[in-house]
Amino acid sequence: MSRAGAPPVALRQRPSRSVPATICAAVLLALGIVLVWMALVRLTSGSWPEAFTAPFTWLAGVSWDDPAVWTLGAVAAAVGLILLLAGILPGQYRDLGVRLPAAEEPDSEAAVEGDAAVVMSRRAVAQLAAATCEHIDGVSSASATATDREVRVSVNTALHDTRDLHRWVGDGVRSRLVASGLDPAPRVKVYINSRD
Fold first, then answer.
1. Which domain of life is it from (predicted)?
2. What is the C-alpha to C-alpha distance for residues 170 and 3, in angstroms, rounded to an integer?
C-alpha cells in the first residue's frame, strides 16, 4: 500500500472491528426478534407474555437504593463505556513501514520522487518469511507469524542435528526482511521441529 504526494500522511488505518460489530449486531438482532415475537403474542392474545412483564413487575417492587438496581446500572454503564471506547479509540497499528530508496541513490531503479509512504501488512511479512525458509536446504515446510517487532518462524525438517539449520534460517529470513526495506526490521525467532 503506498501513497505519493504532499503533504505526507501516515498510513495508519484503523482496524475494521468486525468481531465486536458482529457480536453487537447479533445481540441487537436477537433482542429485536424477541420483541417482535412478544408484540405478535400481544396482538393475538390481547395480553403481554409473562416473560415480558416479569422484569417490569420486579422493577416496580424495588427501590432506587436497592443493590440490585445499582448493580444493573453499573453493568449497563460499563457496557456502554466499552462500546463507546471501541468506537472512539484507534486500534492497534498492524502494518510495518518500508523504507523507499531515495531518488539520488545510484542503484535505485525503484526510486520514488517526492513524499511517499509504503507499508507491509503483518500477514505479508509472515508470508515473506515462510517463503524464504522454503528455499533453504533441509527445510521440509515452514510457517511464520509476525508482529510489529518480531517474526516467529516454525520450520519442519527431517534433519536430526538442527544447529546449522537454525542459524541458516535465522540469517536467511533476517537478511530477506532487511533487503525488503522493512525499517526497522523485526527480530527473527526460529523454532525447529525435527521429524523422522
1. Bacteria
2. 32
CA torsion sign, 130 to 153 to 129 to 165?
Answer: negative
pLDDT of residue 78: 95
**Closest to 138 measured CA to CA, from 108, 96, 168, 112:** 168
Report whether the peptide linkage leading into residue 55 is cis, meaning its omega lies within 30 degrees of zero. no
pLDDT tens, 102-137?
Answer: 655 555 555 555 566 677 888 889 999 999 988 888
Question: Quick check: helix, strand or coil at residue 158?
Answer: coil
What stretch(es) of the chain map to CATH 3.30.300?
96-103+111-194
pLDDT digits (tens, 9 = 90+) for 150-166: 999 999 988 888 888 88
The kind and range of the H/E element at 195 are none
Name the fold adopted by 96-103+111-194.
Answer: GMP Synthetase; Chain A, domain 3 (3.30.300)
Phi-psi region of 112 (alpha: psi -120 to 50; beta: other; left: phi over 0): beta
Phi-psi region of 138 (alpha: psi -120 to 50; beta: other; left: phi over 0): left
pLDDT(6) > 50: no
